[in-house]
Amino acid sequence: MLGAWLDSLNVDRLCALSSLCEERMSGHFSSRLLESVRWEAVLAVTSGDCESKSPVTSVRFGTSTWDNGVFYSEMSADFVHADGTVSAMDCGDKVAEHLADLSSVDHPDNGDTLTVDLVTGRVTT
User: Fold this and answer.
1) Residue 124: strand pairing partners
2) What is the pTM of this model?
3) 3-class SS at 74?
4) Pseudo-torsion of CA 32, 67, 23, 34, nearest 10°?
5) What is the rounded distance in angstroms from the CA atom of residue 71 to the CA atom of residue 29?
6) Positive or negative torsion for Cα 61, 118, 88, 28
7) Per-residue pLDDT tens for 47-71?
8) CA 8 to chain CA centroid, nearest Å
9) How confident is the model over 27-34, as a mean pLDDT?
10) Virtual CA dihedral for 48, 88, 39, 108, nearest 10 degrees?
11) Long-range Cβ pairs for the range 115-120 (8 Å, 24+)
12) Which band of pLDDT confidence, cut at 50, 70 and 90, is reported for residue 76?
């Protein structure tokens, strides 16, 4: 039934529908990412892996280019602490998974920075 309805749409309407779906997925992927990054930040500070014991207020992710495109990267993320210190940290597999999901719908460009604000919960580029 859904397939028949999709077949009835012209290209412009299919593109508009695709865009709406990607916006919705981006919101869901951002929420999952926020949850995982908050956990990683707590672990990093409590384990003493960071350059500061101050809470992490935001995390910035750069991009990496692969054969299949540009993706936000969990490697060498910048953990920004409340005292202004920045700790370069690698994040775990869950964060990597969520970044890949978000990249698939946000389509980052090489050199983009994704910021996860752990105070407000906003995820921005």
Assistant:
1) 115
2) 0.90
3) coil
4) 20
5) 14
6) negative
7) 999 999 999 999 999 999 999 999 9
8) 34
9) 97
10) 180
11) 115/58, 115/59, 115/60, 115/61, 116/33, 116/34, 116/37, 116/58, 116/59, 116/60, 116/61, 117/57, 117/58, 118/34, 118/37, 118/38, 118/41, 118/56, 118/57, 118/58, 118/59, 119/57, 119/58
12) confident
pLDDT tops 90 at residue 46: yes
* Band (18; pLDDT cuts 50, 70, 90): confident
Residue with tokens 């003493």: 48
Return the exposure string of 97-106: e unless at least 16 CB atoms fall within 10 Å of the residue's CB, then b. Answer: ebbebbbebb
Whether 86 and 41 have beta carbons less than 8 Å apart is answered as no
Written as six digits, the tokens of 14 are: 């299919």
